[in-house]
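Troubleshooting entry. The earlier prediction with N-acetyl-L-glutamyl 5-phosphate gave an output that would not parse, so I re-checked the input for stray whitespace and re-submitted. Clean input:
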Amino acid sequence: MHKAAIGIIGASGYSGVEATHLLAAHERVELRLVTSDRWKGETVGRRLGVMGPLAGLRYEPQERSLELARGCEVVLLATPAETSLELVPGLLAAGVRVIDLSGAFRLRDTAAYPTFYNFTHAAPALLEEAVYGLPELSSRERIAQARLVANPGCYATACALSVAPLLRAGLLEPGSLIFDAASGTTGAGRKGSEDLSFSEVDEDFRAYRVLRHQHTPEIAQTLAGVAGRSVPLTFTAHLLPLKRGILVTAYSRLAPGATAAQAQAALRDAYASSPFITVESSPDAVSLKGVVGTNRCTVALAVDTTGHDPGRVVVTAAIDNLVKGAAGQAVQNLNLMKGWEETSCLSTLRSFTP
Ligand SMILES: NC(=O)C1=CN([C@@H]2O[C@H](COP(=O)(O)OP(=O)(O)OC[C@H]3O[C@@H](n4cnc5c(N)ncnc54)[C@H](OP(=O)(O)O)[C@@H]3O)[C@@H](O)[C@H]2O)C=CC1
Ligand SMILES: CC(=O)N[C@@H](CCC(=O)OP(=O)(O)O)C(=O)O
């Protein structure tokens, strides 16, 4: 069987390690390149315990990324957004297709970058070209053809998947959407900060970057695409004292005339042929234990029938931030780009990192 040469730039981070494990087990992939300054010269076998022919693959220094990536068909960038922005033009010019796990190519509006990512975007033409890689909501055909796939953010994935079918069907009242979301600490990457140390995080729970989180414009952009109108929303991120997983609770109201049965049917129908999305019978059944270590998203909704707030809709969604929220979704996009089964190497998974 022909194997495609794939590279991972930024292979020592949480999502890069997850991607390395996934691709090492992918029968259609020859993992050709892994880069990391922290681990340069060391082997994948020694660092990650990967066995077989790949065990001797060495981490290359970041400064050789562009030169060595020329031997790859597709490269995953598991790097900070500024680094992705620097690397992508050169990779595309060399004929290498890219799946970028950072936020560098997710937003169409260049003006949002200084506000939410603290840099001015240097490649606006590529923002036009990049295809947003959320297969269940974007076009699978466009992902398959793309040179550059912008892999979605972790919170943005869970939030968009929770309510998109209801918005698409016109079942939610405009202007009433709130997302309350909580993530494990691996969402912040390995780089760490004082706020993320074990002693600070353990047994604590708090919101962060309130009303200025970078995933707010990303969620709004995706939902506007499915609703066909702008979607005002409030998004609040919280830090969970756990390693992995994101749980989102979305609050909205049914549009006038819409029914609970229509909302339930819209959710089920939207994901009936999406192998990674499971619609549960109740929001109570959506939990991190059901998704961590997998590429799944579980989702469910309830409509208030107690009479306290008629028409209130609550939707919950859960994902593993490192899998469906990062490396797993990147492999799902790779499978589509290469015309392989969408579930290749993603159907059985376990937690790898940390
Ligand atoms: N963690 C998560 O849940 C998610 C993360 N993302 C995004 O994916 C990307 C990677 O995230 P994550 O794995 O958490 O990050 P980490 O902080 O865990 O790892 C960052 C990686 O980038 C490399 N790197 C850092 N600086 C540079 C540089 N200047 N040039 C080249 N490489 C560099 C590091 O390699 P080394 O230092 O060894 O050279 C390391 O491999 C980020 O853009 C993040 O926002 C997206 C969705 C979810
Ligand atoms: C817990 C935690 O800190 N999570 C990160 C999510 C990381 C991510 O997906 O950020 P990008 O948009 O840069 O890819 C955050 O809230 O920023």
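This one parsed fine. The pocket of N-acetyl-L-glutamyl 5-phosphate (ligand 2) is lined by residues 81, 102-103, 153-154, 183, 185, 187-188, 214-215, 237, 239 (CB under 6 Å).
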